[in-house]
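Researcher: Structure prediction, please.
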Amino acid sequence: GTCEMKLIGTDLDGWSYSSWCEDRQGRLYVMGYPGLLARIDMETENVTGLGRLTTRALYCWRSPLAADEEGRIYAVPGPRGFSLVAFDPASNTVDVLHDGQARIIPNNGRPYARIGPKVNDGGPYDRRVALQGGKAVPIDEPPEVGPWTYLSASLAKEFEVEWVERAPVSSLRHRLRDAETWNETEFEVPTTERILDNLATGPDGRIY
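Model: Predicted structure follows.
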């Protein structure tokens, strides 16, 4: 790789798209402030804004997104009004699977979630659910790890990536593992005023 960074998706609503996952077709889904979802086609470099996942999430919680074997995407927008949600790309619709805190484990295409009142704050979980077919199915044990090989897994062998949080600007840094120089992209830390000035269209067509 060349370690070059290309700027795409500059016309998207929202900002600071920092949580992401990859589906079986190699497309990336990214979630940003305030709870917005976008899809990136890695072959065409086409970026599509998919709207806001929930009206309750003032921010996007920086927990993993995950895709199942059928292509549905699971996320936990928050931290005001945490919800575990499933996005169906075929119908462009969102279903709320659980109101409250949840921690997603991508599990190589067979995702599941740990659910508990304080699990996103480092607390214990009281149950597990498998995330499949757009539903949260109660389980006793984690599902078997899936067979997917992610682009991110191969890139991790070549690149180092760091997320540096600081107000008023955070940054994402990356470099080849044998390089001395970091490449850095900065992101403005959101304020309440900016959030209220960036209303967005949800998957249901409503303005939030």
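Model: The first helix runs from residue 151 to 158.
Researcher: Thanks, that helps.
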